[in-house]
Each structure stands twice: as structure tokens, then as C-alpha cells.
Amino acid sequence: MAIKVEMPKLSDTMEEGVIAKWNVEEGDNVESGDIIAEVETDKATMEVEVFDAGTILKILASEGDAVPLGQIMAVIGEEGEDISDILKEAESGSESTSGAGKEGTDQKEQEKETPEKEKDDDYDPVFEDSDQGQGKAPASKDTAGNGRIKASPLARRMAEEEGITLANVEGSGPQGRIIKRDIESYEPAEAPAAATVSREDKEVRVSQMRKTIARRLSESKFSNPHYYETISVDMQAVWDARKQINEVSDTKISFNDIVVKACAAALRKHPEINSSWHGDKIVQHGDVNIAVAVAVDEGLLTPVINNTDQKGLEQLQIETRELAEKARERKLQPEEMEGSTFTISNLGMFGIEEFTAIINPPNACILAVGAIKEIPVVEDGEVVPGKRMKMTLSSDHRIVDGAMAAQFLNTLRQMLENPLGIVL
């Protein structure tokens, strides 16, 4: 008897999945427990296994197709078995989503052609300031045989920022691929003063992750009464302490690691900040589980460091780096993004001095961390160089009042300005 392989529910918020990869072809024999496909959900890329042995009689979704929950992806049975009834059922169930397949397939074909990214010497695995694709430069010349110019993601971003057309650049990488040094050494010919270029609009398919981000943050912003408080912190002591630690430690501690550690200690002193709203009650969580926002192509992922207050700086650095790398590779499991009680979003490494962040539900608060800036400050009546960093706490007013948030921020500032207590 033929068996239908339907799109399973792989996360609690999943409504549909995109076929990232098929591991089998029609005619292949499979056993119970075999992984036949990889599916992109709203949170991660998950594996789909079969529970019955047989032959893959039909694959009904192409790589890149968005398949709703419960819709048939493939059919397993005995070779030569009649599956016409199942195919009719699948056809009637997929009419409303048939237009998504070709677009998704085209998108996947482009992704397959994109080579692995280059890494700069100052590449950071948490915030990735080197070559994370923020946009693609327009291509007007076919150097890959299919209308797509061969260039690394970093080169594409640099070209877009500098206004360089990739079609005018000679690539020095493998098979003529355009890389970073080609953009750096490019000298454009002078264009006519009055010349203008008309560029076509570009439509970008909304990924499962982006759909979920849009839904969750819209709900948070318009359902939770946000308010914001900003504080400035003297980071000279942290600057000096980090330098000393990294001189003797094999693990290189980042400023973000120290901020995470300080937040965990401050949350233990202010349990009302480490809370969530549950309609008729407020839950003050016993554990301190801090989520750290990590930028990926489609948006942000928030892997969670459980029991953050019980871990040292080296352990926090190692765990944060591992989770960030998994986020980049879309290998985070749902349980690694669940259970947070507080969230930190750090844009300091991008030079952002101050910003506000939307609360990550069901958290009561999220901390937005800016860059450490060297500015003139007055000490003992004299103007001297100082290092300052601004932090903005977004709070849910249903849970946290203004004075509570202010007390938490002052505790956090005191800890960062006297970091010996949190380092030990």
C-alpha cells in the first residue's frame, strides 16, 4: 500500500516548510529512519525522516518549494504500484500554492551558485561584520554562463557600497571570480557628468524566518506597551580588564561576553526584569536564560544561553561562539532558541552609538547595546579622554515600571564600571 509523506510540523510556530534539499530521487529504496529531505522552517533547517520502508515512487515538491503543513511531499510504496488517486489528491491540495514553486526553485538555484564566503582577519562569529550579505550589487554581464557574475558575497557588498558595477571589474579569483582585492584595486573610468542609470526593481522572496520575524515583532510592538530608558556607562575599567584577561587567557573574551555576564548578575538582583506576562499573572523566572541576537541573511536569530548567571566568562564566550556559528549555518535546533528570560542586542561593532530594540516575547525587556566611543570627559576639573557606551532598555510597561528599569540599569552600570566583581 502506497504511503504519503506529508510536510510535518517541525516547530511550534511552523505553518509551512521550504524544501531545502532532497536526499533521495524517484526510484530510490529507503528504510525506516532514513533522512529523505531537509526542510527550512521559520526557525531552522530540519531533517525529515521516513517511518516506512519502500521505493520513492513520486516526489511532488521541488527544492525551493514552500509546502504547507500536511501537504504531500512524496509517495512511498512498492515499485510499479498505482498511485493515481494519491496524485489527484496532491494536485487538488496544491493548487493554491503552485505559484510558489518556480520562484523558490529559482532562488535555490541562485543560492547553489553562491560560493562560500570569504572571512576578513577581524571576522566576528557573533555579529559578523566582514561579509554578511546586506545586499547584492547589480550584475549586467554573464561570466558564469547563466547571466550571473561570479563574485564573493563580500565583493558584492563592497561593490554596492562603492557604487561599482561588477560587470566592469576583472576577477582575479578562481575561474575569474571577483574577490575583495579586485574591488579594492578597481579604478573606474570617468563617466559623463550628466549620465544617469535606470535600475530595475528587484523582488525578494520572503523566507520562513522573515515571515515569523514580521509576525512576532509586529505582535510584540503593538501588543506590548513599550517604553525606553537610556544610560551611559564609563567603559574604561572594562577596557582595561578585558585587555589583561586576554593577555593570559587562551580564550579571547569579547566586550559582549562581559556585558552578558554583567546582565546576568544584575538580573539576579532585579527578578522583576527577569519576568514574563501571562495574562492574569506575572512569572518571575528562577533561571536566568539570556538570548543573544545574531544577524543572519534573512534577519535575526536569538540563541539562548541557559543559566547564564552560573557560567564564567570563558564558558560564555565558547558557548556564544558555538551558538552563533550554528545560527549562521542554520543548524540551530528549536530548543536552542526557546526559554529565554531576557535578550541582548548588540550593534556596537557596527559603529551604532544608540538604538532601541523591540522586545522579544515573552520577555519583559530587551537591552540594546551601542558602540564604545572615545570622547572627552571631565575628571577632577580637567578634560581627559574617556570611553563611554550607551545602553537602552526596552521594557513592557505591564510588567516593569520606570523606576524598576532605572534601578536595573544603574546596577548594570555599577557592575560594568567595577568589573572585578563579575569577572571573579
From TrEMBL:
Residues 2-77 form the Lipoyl-binding domain. One of its GO terms (molecular function) is dihydrolipoyllysine-residue acetyltransferase activity. Binds 1 lipoyl cofactor covalently. Residues 90-154 are annotated as: Disordered. GO terms for cellular component: pyruvate dehydrogenase complex. Residues 150-187 form the Peripheral subunit-binding (PSBD) domain. Its EC number is 2.3.1.12. Keywords: Acyltransferase, Lipoyl, Pyruvate, Transferase. It comes from the Bacteria. Residues 103-120 have a biased composition (Basic and acidic residues). Its cofactor is (R)-lipoate. SUPFAM superfamilies: CoA-dependent acyltransferases (SSF52777), Peripheral subunit-binding domain of 2-oxo acid dehydrogenase complex (SSF47005), Single hybrid motif (SSF51230). Transmembrane segments: none annotated. Gene3D superfamilies: 2.40.50.100, Chloramphenicol acetyltransferase-like domain (3.30.559.10), E3-binding domain (4.10.320.10). InterPro entries: 2-oxoA_DH_lipoyl-BS (IPR003016), 2-oxoacid_DH_actylTfrase (IPR001078), Biotin_lipoyl (IPR000089), CAT-like_dom_sf (IPR023213), E2/Pdx1 (IPR045257), E3-bd_dom_sf (IPR036625), LAT1 (IPR006257), PSBD (IPR004167). Residues 121-131 have a biased composition (Acidic residues). The pyruvate dehydrogenase complex catalyzes the overall conversion of pyruvate to acetyl-CoA and CO(2). It contains multiple copies of three enzymatic components: pyruvate dehydrogenase (E1), dihydrolipoamide acetyltransferase (E2) and lipoamide dehydrogenase (E3). Forms a 24-polypeptide structural core with octahedral symmetry. Belongs to the 2-oxoacid dehydrogenase family. This is Acetyltransferase component of pyruvate dehydrogenase complex. It comes from Fodinibius roseus.
